[in-house]
């Protein structure tokens, strides 16, 4: 669909079987389109849990038991996610992390009460 103002639109439907897959799709899309960082499947799953449940000791315990990893391994993943810009240090406690502002927007979008959700993507050709 195109108009005389140079605007072109394409509608793609994102079908997902559950909210876990929706949040993972949003994380993958964000990571490739905004940060150009490649996330491992485990990193994406960890971020998903932080978005859905918050960054807390309870969530870390859940991640450890669900993904069968030790706390030291989880801390390594958290460090990698921090280096990639997905987690940032808490302002009052450097041992705690918080989601980046962009991931907080994804969390707010996901938790929003709207029945129908729309994601707008502005495609920018960096070669122009």
Strand and helix layout:
Elements: H1 19-35, H2 41-53, H3 57-67, H4 71-83, E1 87-89, E2 97-99, H5 101-111
Antiparallel strand pairs: 1-2
Report what the structure shows.
The protein is mainly α. The protein has helices at residues 19-35, 41-53, 57-67, 71-83, 101-111, and strands spanning 87-89, 97-99. It contains five helices and two strands. A two-stranded antiparallel sheet has the order 1-2. The two termini are 22 Å apart.
**What is the topology, as strand order, of the major beta sheet?**
1-2
CATH architecture: Orthogonal Bundle
The tally of helices reads 5
Residue fraction in strands: under 5%
Short description:
The protein is mainly alpha-helical and 128 residues long. The chain has helices at 19-35, 41-53, 57-67, 71-83, 101-111, and strands at 87-89, 97-99.
Please supply descriptive tags for the structure shown above:
single chain, 128 residues, mainly alpha, Arc Repressor Mutant, subunit A, two-stranded antiparallel sheet
């Amino acid at each position: 669909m195109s108009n005389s103002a140079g605007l072109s639109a394409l509608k793609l439907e994102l079908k997902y079987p559950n909210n876990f897959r929706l949040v993972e799709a949003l994380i993958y899309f964000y990571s490739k389109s905004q940060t150009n960082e490649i996330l491992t499947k485990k990193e994406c799953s960890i971020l998903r849990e932080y978005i859905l449940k918050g960054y807390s000791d309870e969530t870390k315990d859940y991640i450890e038991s669900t993904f069968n990893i030790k706390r030291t391994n989880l801390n390594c993943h958290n460090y990698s996610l921090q280096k990639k810009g997905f987690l940032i240090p808490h302002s009052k406690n450097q041992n705690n992390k918080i989601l980046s502002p962009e991931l907080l927007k994804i969390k707010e979008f996901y938790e929003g009460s709207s029945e129908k959700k729309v994601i707008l993507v502005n495609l920018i050709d960096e070669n122009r």
